[in-house]
Structure formats: structure tokens, C-alpha cells
């Protein structure tokens, strides 16, 4: 699978990273001599954050290439994404050329923030709106507008690279999300211009209140809850009258003068000037990863998108021992010592146990039937430091699988194949109703014993059966 | 400290919970016979989520009382908060009465979404705007508007209960955040009315894109980053022209008809009707707690507020052994078996180790000076199940503190005093530059040895020195 990215920059680079890290080859066309450096920086950001959303490895990265000839860049591409500046004449020119170059079944997407498909294709060009949000490699939303057959096909591809396509029912200027952003932006410019609040105070007002609310429920669901037991109609009756009140400046937009630009840019420097754009980007990405991992626990919003994408990622093939973990270490797993925190060695081991339970059929439906394994004892040896962004692979040996017992020994390997830790763990099979130990179902028992039989000749691994502080 | 809550409901209840769980006594006045039940439900939600933001215990809860006499409710209160319906005549009546009842130095706050202080106090009443966001017990933002002396005092009190006061420079209808919400609301009503998107699609557009972005950076900082290396001026130049484009419907608001209400309420039922309001609230709270705990790692936005509040919470007093943990178990620490996941037993132990390091002076500044302890081995025994919302207390015994070694044994106790787990852990002192083991500073060594000497007569605790699967 190959994607062609027409126009680098922050948005084109984000698209490139999203495809590349999901195993697509990516060809970039951008006449800017700085394009390779700029896209390289976006991809570097993506490499340290996108895989960290998942507890499984993404497919191997595709190949990235840069081209000075657009026809060469798009050759064989299944998706061509245009992310050039927001000028209709430029878009007509490029989209027109692309439509001639690529076959009918290649999706031509435009990252336009505001133009409608009818405007983009007025010159006969073939294109749909595929409007992303920055950072494209982390935020799942893509607004699709245009030909239903093409948007349908595009939606399928986008889901396969972990995104959340939203097909807009009728075309409208600025699609959906940017209409909200524009309304908030206009209102914010007034507040700064009128001296009601600075840029920093406005940002505080957003992130300390409704911003964090909107990360997991949108406007309507939030208000449904705010309406309390009386529900949505009650909420609307309560706030309906406000529609007539001067609670926003709305259409009356401030004059876009140099003074206003200086005022805003100056306040923005005061607010954030102590951090470089690169530092801000990384802070933003670390926060997004942390929050999206939190949402993944409940499957809400962007967390649900990650859950579904992860479920479809291929399991690594077993070698001598089953591979029960293959993942990148998220920044949020590190601590003040600049390495992976001790807790997350056990978390990785615990996820490996879950993965092993899947292998013997003690999976979600087994647990739903009222049976599971509870851990009663664990022992972790920390053998070498692991760092954010590093690949971690886990293999598991069964030390005992008789009766109620599940005695596992996980080997945690760092990126260079060094044994970074071992996690030894003993679980007992339980009846979830009585919370007392019980025998597993025969099918589970059988699979477990066959692992045990296969692993028994390996003998006790080095470090098994240790107590804390024992001499090597 | 006592707060009086005038008007129950979702907002008044949220205020009550926020004060109560921060150790204030709370007196509620609300003529609604259902007030006690309603506020009880809000407080139940707060008890399972607010303390879960912290890795330390909040102060003991204050006393909650309900009153049918307003004068009795406000007696001795340092803060009186009015959260009655949004009608100016009602507000005048109540704020007027309150101003007669309480002394000058009592803060009288109004939860009004829209009225300006000059409107609220037109009848001579004393009051400031103290506008919260639902759920008040979790979201830190409070907009303060009015008399600078009172808002200054109010800000100090709000910080002491873990909130983030934002003082608005000049009064304006709907303060700051609600102006944005109103703009988005008006735009959203248009989109639904015009059939561009359903309520569910609009919510998707928000939470999959800019919603999650705004939880951690606001509008301006996000755009600063989007501007890339060229910065805020570049961003403004790029989007300045859009101010003249029809990217929002703005002042032209849809007619508030029954049809519109039915359309919105019907779509909202389709979207969220499978969950009760109570279930939605708990899902929202679990998500907010998870995301706010993620933001706490980097100290961003609401996470910074929690960090600062937590730093000021009093440490529990040592008993026979030092208390190195005292906290509530967050929902996000539980798993598919309906109890605390094995990983978080070790996380609690790891935080207890951090706390013990503080006690011997191996604190943040010690680590900044290039010295720290690294864990080399840990052993966890899981003795009983722990559940979300349960209080967890940890005590720590020093098994060895000689030379480079720090050998600790943590006892984890559940709410009823049962020993729920033990975590035995061995750390080595390291030089953070060479990453090799080294001797601690003499001051640290001395404090550590005095703990060791004091704990030595206790002997090896039951379960220390065990290997996995050893018979009891």
C-alpha cells in the first residue's frame, strides 16, 4: 500500500507519519527544499507518540521517499492527499493535475479547512474533502465530504490506519469542527481586543473547564448530563432563552488590524514563549497520549478508536516460547530517574499474562462466563534500564500449569535483545461468583498443560524461585 | 470552616461536595423536598472520583447538614454560594437577604452563568460571580468577577480546596467560557436544524478532534503550535482572511421552536438513551479522573492544579512504622476481574518507596543533584482483593539500610485494616551520571540507618524473603 503526500508542512507531514507508521509506503511531493527536514521532524514526533497509544506493536514502518516530480510521487498510490495552502486557484491546479495522473480508483483527498467539494471540483477535478486535525498522527478525526462512493472507500482505508472518519451529510463551508473553532476564535479575538482577558487567561478558561469535558463527551452529551434527571428537553428549556441574549459577539467580528495581531502575538509570547515550538509539541503529544490511553480504559471517544484498531493488529508469531508482548514504551511509563518506572515492568508482565490467558482460551468470554485467574504472588527482577520509545518484547515460559495453578515466567527484552527484566508470577484459577479457587474448564486446562509439557524440558530459568536480595 | 450552599441541584450539590470532601462543614438551604436526595447523589459521585485524583488522602470530610431556615444555614459560614435558577428577580431577592444575614467578611458567591456583578448587586446586595463548571467536584475552573478585594479573598479559599480561580478583568455578559459555549451551541443548533449533522456526529467531531486537544492546551497555545516554526503571527496571517468568510452562522440564531427541541432531544435519545444519566455521569467522571491523572504526570492544565493541591495536603502521622501511603483507589486502577489490578499494588508500593525516600532526604532536590535509588528486585504478595473507592494505607519497615542498599517491606492495608498485600523491594543507591551504584550522601545514610536501627528489633516480617510459590 502506498500513499502520496502532496505538500509537506505540519499537516502533510502528519498524514505522511500516520500512513508510514501503519505500514504504508509514503511518497512526498513538495517543491520546498526544506520539506524533507520539516516532514522528518513531524515523523520524529509521531514515532515517539503514536505507537505509545497501543499495547501492541504497529505493523513495520513503510518506506518514505521524496520526489521532485509529482507524477512519479503518485505512481501506484492508493491514496493521494493534497495539503497545499488554502487558495482555491492553487487547489484547482494541483487537484486537476492529480486527477489526470492517477486511476479512477485512487482516492484523492484534500486537507482543506474550508472549501466545499463542489468548489474543489468546479474545474472537473476528482477529489473529496478529507480534513484532518493537528497533530494528524495522533488525533483520529477526519471529516469526509463529497462523492459517497469515494468517501465510503476512504472511510474504510482511514479506519485501517486507526482514524475515525466522520462523513458530513451535506457540504457546508468549513465542514463541522472548524465552524466551531471559527466561532470560538472570533469570540476570543473580541475578548482579547476588548481587554476582558489575555490569551493565557482564555486558554485557562478552556482547559480547566469545558476543554477537558469535551475530550470525552461532546456538547450534546455533556448537556444531556447537565440537564440531570429531567434530561435534554429540560436543559434546552433552561438555556433556550439565552439564544436571544448577548452571550456572544458572533457575526460582528473584530477588524483584523496589525494592532490586533501584535496584541495577540505579544500575549502569546508572554504565555508560552519560555518553551520552543518543539518543546510545546512534545508536551502536547505526551499529554494527548496520556489522556488517550486513559480514555482507552473505558473505550470512550478516541480511546474507543485505539481499542478497535489495536484489536485488529496482528499477533506476533511464537518463536521457541510464545511472544506475549511486543510494544513501544510510552513516555507516561517513565519517571524522575529518566527510565521506565518499576511499576510498568510489572504492568508489561501483567499484560503478558493477559495475552497468555488468551492463548489458553481464558479470554474475555471465558471471564464473562464467571471464571478467571487471580494473581497471588509476583517477583520482578530489574536487570537493565528501559527508555521511552524503546521497543519491548516479552516471551513467556510456563513453569507450572497443573490443577488450579498457573505459574508463569516472563522474559522482557529491550530493543537490542538484552534481557531487561524477568517477571515471575503465580496465579490461581477462581470462580468469580464465590471468589474462591476452582479448577479451570477442561479446554483451558488442556491447552495450558500442552504449553507446560512443551516448556518443561527447558528447566527452571535463571532467576526463577529467587527471593529478594538472594545472591546470584 | 463552614460553607453554606443556597440552592441544591447539580451545581449546588457539586459545590457542597467540593467543600465537604476538602474538610469543610457544609450547610444546605433548599426548599425542594428532594434536595437531600439529589445532593446525596452528587456527593456519592464526588466521593468515588475527587479523591481518586490524588495520591494522598484529602482531609477528613466535614459535616453535612440540611436546613429549612436560610439564616440558620448561613450562620458562621465563611463562604455562602448561591446556585438558584438563572432569574435576576430571584437572585436579587436571595442575594439581598444573604447580604443582611452574613457579616462583611463572608464571601457571597453566585453561580450565575450569565449575569454581571453590576446586575446582581443593583439592589445593593453584596455578591461576586463565582461561576463553576459541571461537575463542580472535578473541574477546577471558577470564574471570579466583581469587587477585587472579595475576589482576591475568594481566590485564596478556592485554591485551598483544589480549584483554579480565574479572575475576569472586566465584567461582561456570560463571563468568558460560557461565551464560547454559547457560540458553539448556536452553531450546533444550526447544523442539526439544517441537517448537516446529528447531535451524535457533532459530538464525535468535538471529542475526536479539538476537544481532546483543548483538555491540555487552550485555543491560542494550540494555534501557536499549529503555526509551527513561523509562530503565532504566521498562524494569524494564514487564518485572518477567514474572519470575512461564512465559516460560522454566528449572530443569526435559529428560531427556538418545539420542532427544534424535539429534533435535538430525539437525536440525543438515539445517541445516549441506552445509558441512564447516572451511568453517563459515572462514565464521564471515570474519564475525567483518568485524563486528569494523565495530565498530573506533566503538571499541565488541571493536572498542575492537582499537583499543587496535593503538595499542600498534610502527611499522615507515623505510628509504630512510618505511614508511606494513605489514598483512595481510583477506578482506573481496577480491571476486568472487578478489583484492583496487580500492577497497581506495585504502583502503590512504588509510591510508598518514593514517600520513604522523602523521609530520608532523598527527595526531588537530591535527585536533581544527580543521586537516586534504582529498584533492582521486587516481590508482591496479593493477600486480599481491593476495590475502587477503597481507602488504602501503607506502612513501611526497613529491612536493611547499610551502604548502598535500601531494602524495604511495605504493608498495604485495606479500609477495614486487613493486610491486603505486602511489597518487598530492594533498591541500590546510584550516581545518575554514571548510572552505577554509589554510596548515598552522609545525611541520607544517617537518616536511613536511624530508621533501620529502630526497625531492626521488629525482626523479619512474615512473608519477607519468600520466593514465588513457597509454602506458607
General description of the model:
2 copies of one chain form a homodimer. With 472 residues, chain A is of the alpha/beta class. The first copy, chain A, has 3 domains: 2-175, Rossmann fold, CATH 3.40.50; 178-274, N-(1-d-carboxylethyl)-l-norvaline Dehydrogenase, domain 2, CATH 1.10.1040.10; 315-458, Roll (Thiol Ester Dehydrase, Chain A). In chain A, 42% of the residues lie in helices and 19% in strands. In chain A, strands 3-2-1-4-5-6-7-8 form an 8-stranded mixed beta sheet, with helices on both faces. In chain A, strands 9, 10, 11, 12, 13 and 14 form a 6-stranded antiparallel beta sheet that branches. Chain A is globular and about 75 Å long. The two termini of chain A are 50 Å apart. Chains A and B meet through helix 7, helix 8, helix 9, helix 10 and helix 11 of A and helix 7, helix 8, helix 9, helix 10 and helix 11 of B.
